[in-house]
Amino acid sequence: MNGPAYVAVDWGTSSFRLWLIDRAGQVLAERRSGEGMLAAAKAGFAAVLQSHLAAVEAPDHLPVLVCGMAGARTGWVEAGYVDTPAPLPAILKQAARVPGEARDIRILPGIAQREVTSPDVMRGEETQLLGALGLDATGEALVCMPGTHSKWVRVKDGTVEHFSTFMTGELFSVVSRETILSLAVAGADEAEDIASFKAAVTAAYEAPAFAANLLFGARSRQLLFGGTPAAAREALSGTLIGVELAAGLSGAVPEAGVTLVASGRLAMLYRLAFDALSVAVAPIDADEAVRRGLSMAAAAIWTK
Amino acid sequence: MNGPAYVAVDWGTSSFRLWLIDRAGQVLAERRSGEGMLAAAKAGFAAVLQSHLAAVEAPDHLPVLVCGMAGARTGWVEAGYVDTPAPLPAILKQAARVPGEARDIRILPGIAQREVTSPDVMRGEETQLLGALGLDATGEALVCMPGTHSKWVRVKDGTVEHFSTFMTGELFSVVSRETILSLAVAGADEAEDIASFKAAVTAAYEAPAFAANLLFGARSRQLLFGGTPAAAREALSGTLIGVELAAGLSGAVPEAGVTLVASGRLAMLYRLAFDALSVAVAPIDADEAVRRGLSMAAAAIWTK
After folding, report:
1. Which domains does chain B have, with CATH numbers?
2. A239 Cβ neighbours under 8 A, 6+ residues apart
3. ipTM score of the complex?
C-alpha cells in the first residue's frame, strides 16, 4: 500500500474540500467543510488548512496543492490568472507558492478573459476543466459548469478560447429568499415538480427577455390558480436555468453535445433542463473532475 | 373657496399617500409616509388612516377613496379584481366598502389577467391608468409603468387588453444589495454615469438571454479594468431595464410611441433607456396620474 504523496484542496467561496492522495492518485482520506474563502478570511487560511491536515494526519513534509478562491485578491495569496486563449497545461506552470510556510503549499491561477465587451474571470473551474478534459484534449467542447456562478466554456484542442459567467445560482438564492417570491415558495418541501420545472425551462428558453415577468408569474399563478410552493420553486429555478441555456446554446453546439460538469442536485436539474430542450449532454461529475485536475497538476509539479 | 369634498389615498406595499381634495379637484392638503400595506398590517389600517385624516383635519363625514395594496387579500379589505379585458370605467363600479366604519371608506379593485400561460395581477396601476388615459380614452396605447414591479399594459379604447409585470425594481434592489455585485457597487455616490447606463441598456436589449452574464460583467470589468462603483451600479440598472424593454417592446409599438407613466428618478432613467433605443415616449407623471384617477373615481361615486 502506498503512503500519501500530496494533499489536494478545492477552496471555493463558501466551501472547503481536502483530499489526501497517494502516488497512484488514490484517495486515502477526505475532508469537507463550510470554511470557504469568506470564513477562512476571518479564521486565517493557514489555521483552517492546518486543522484539516492534522485531522487526516498528513506528514509535515507533504506538499499541498490548492485551487479556487483562496487564490483571489481577497483570498490567501493572489495566484494571478492565465489569460485567454488559455492552454489548460499553462495553469500548472503558474502555481503561486504561499510564502512563509515550511510546507510546500501552492495555489493554482485562475483564467481571465481581458475582453472589453465580455470581461470575465474564473477560479477553480479551470482545474475542473483540466480534470474533465485532460492535458492532451483534442477537438472542440462546449462545457456547461452549473453553480452559484455558472460557467459556459468553449475549449478547442485543450485551450480555453472563450467563457461566460452567469450568476444563475446566486440569483435563484436571492430571488427565492429575499423578494416577494419568497411568499410563493415558502414551505416548499423536498418533493420535486418536474413538470413545472421543464415547462419553465422551455418558456424561458423561448422568451428570455421575459425572465423578470416569468419569475413574477410564479406568484400570480398561485394567487389566481393556486399551486404548491414546490411548483413555484421549480418554476423559479427552471426560469433562471432556461434563460442561461438560451444564452449558452446561442452559438454552435458540437456534435457530441454539451459537456455537463456538475454534481448532485444541480447535475440532475441541468440534465432535466437539457432534456426539455432535446439537447444531448455528456455528463462528468464535478467533484471527481476537480480532484482529477488537482492530481494531474500535483503529479506534474512534484513528480518529475 | 371650496371646502374638502373627499379624501384620496394611494396605499401601496411600502408607501402611503393621502390627499384632501375639494369639489373642483384641487388639492387642499397632502400627506406622505412609509406606512404602506406591510407596516399598516401591523399597526392597523384604520388607525394609520385616522392619524393622517386627523393631521389634515378632515371632517368626520368626509368620504375616503383608496387604491392599491390595501385592497389585497393580505391588506385591509379585499377589493377583488376586474378581469381582463378590463374597461377602465368598470373599476369605479366595483369599489369595496370597508365594513364597520361610520365614515364611507371604499377601496378600488385591481385588475386580474386569468390566462393560464400569462397569469398576472395589478393593484394601484389601474387607477394610474384611469388618470393617465381618462374615462373616455380612444385608440391604442402601450403603457410602461416602471417600479418595484413594472407593468407594461396594452390598452385599446379604454380597455386593458393585456399586461405583464416585470420585477425589475425588486431585482435591482436584491442584486445590488445581497449578491457578490454588492462589492462592485459599494460606495457608489449620487453621481450618475449615463454612458455606462445607456451602454448596458443597449447590450441587454440586444442579447436579453445574457442578462445574468451581463450583470456579472459589472464585477469582472471592475476586477480586470477598474471602474467606479457608480459605473457598476448604472450597469446593473441599465442591464435590468434593457431586458425589460426587450420584452416590453417585442410587440407592436403604437405610432405615438410608448406612454411612460413614471415620476422622479425612475422617469429619468426610463427616458434615458428609451432614448438609447431611439423609441419615442409620451411621458405622464405617475404621482399626478394616480391622484387624477382617484379624483375621477371619487367624482363618479359620490358626485351624482
Report:
1. 4-137+286-302 (3.30.420.300), 168-285 (3.30.420.310)
2. A200, A201, A203, A204, A211, A214, A215, A218
3. 0.92
